[in-house]
């Protein structure tokens, strides 16, 4: 395992949970989630997807700054530098 710091995914049922490391799981292209979402899940989904573009941009910039990617070991290893300003098109 290379990413033992990542959380595991529950792939079993609630009655018989089975946990697998993320790095051994694959997401199937265009797979649909067919179960009905609970009220709180619907609310969170709507809150996260129905944001004004300017608010979404501000949130993304804040997350990028908090993660401080330029100071990570991986960025140093590969000589990468992350620009915290969004690209304008």
From TrEMBL:
GO MF terms listed in the record are: RNA binding
Q: Which residues form the signal peptide?
A: none
According to the lineage, what is the superkingdom?
A: Eukaryota
Which segments constitute the PAZ domain?
A: 1-29
The family database entries (PANTHER family) matched by this protein are listed as:
EUKARYOTIC TRANSLATION INITIATION FACTOR 2C
Task: Name it.
Answer: PAZ domain-containing protein
**What lineage, starting at the top, does this entry show?**
Eukaryota, Viridiplantae, Streptophyta, Embryophyta, Tracheophyta
